[in-house]
Amino acid sequence: HIPQGPVCTNLGLKPGQRLTVKGKIAPNAKSFVMNLGKDATLLGLHFNPRFDAHGDVNTIVCNSKKVEEWGAEHRETVFPFQKGGIAEITFGVNQNDVTVHLPGHQFTFPNRLNLSVFDYFDTQGDFTLQSLSWE
Questions:
Q1: Where is each Galectin domain found (predicted)?
Q2: Which residue ranges make up each domain of the chain?
Q3: pTM over 0.90
């Protein structure tokens, strides 16, 4: 069973805005998830750092989900997270993609669902949300 963190449902993030997420990673973390989208069924970005899960070690797996249909997985091998550490991640919403800012690294993930607003955010797994801010 994956622990479910807080769920936000009316963020109203539009292109040009960014969401910064801060929290603590569990000392025995296997993986954690952050979802950004329109609602729980339309996820523009499923962000899943895996310490050791589903055959991946120290890899960030990103995807999109439309109702029950997952897209193609996108993998990042830069892995700036540590078990028991603090994670700070900023998601910048653009017209055609989302820029993910990590410590010392950034990458973009396409807005495959063409969402004009990101209203939904949640966290799951071995991560405790400490703060959420957007601008």
A1: 5-135
A2: 18-134
A3: yes
